[in-house]
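ingest -> validate -> predict -> emit
validate: passed (alphabet ok, no gaps, 148 aa)
predict: started
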Amino acid sequence: MNKTELIEALAHETEMSKAAAGRAIDALLEIITKSASNWFIAAEGYDALGVPRKGAEKASAPDLTDAPAIPKTPRVRENSKQAQMIELLKRPDGATLNQLVEATGWQSHTVRGAMAGSLKKKLGLTITSEKNTGQERTYRICSEGVAA
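emit:
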């Protein structure tokens, strides 16, 4: 609700004219802003009511457009289930879904989700999937490691 809407609502509820309601709102805002040390009014509140903030200089927001992006380096804790998965997938033979399920104690859909979300998306690892006839599908982390 902005100041105009507040004036209209006050005029409607009290059956006073909009001019009188406007003067009442202005007086109330004057009282509040004069005793600002006793009240906390967020900048958004001043903006919504169309009242200039007294005693405060407008600080310009820092320009972040030229700031270099700091890349986040994902971390993998030692001895975690995620670290166990990575070690199994780094083997030359890779790992089957059943081996990953057995190592982590997770259900198969959770292992697949961890590969897609944590390993591929967050860590940027390239995971290949291979199925030879008569064998289970084998997953492995490519030797080049990070996806392009």
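The domain at 81-146 is CATH 1.10.10 (Arc Repressor Mutant, subunit A).
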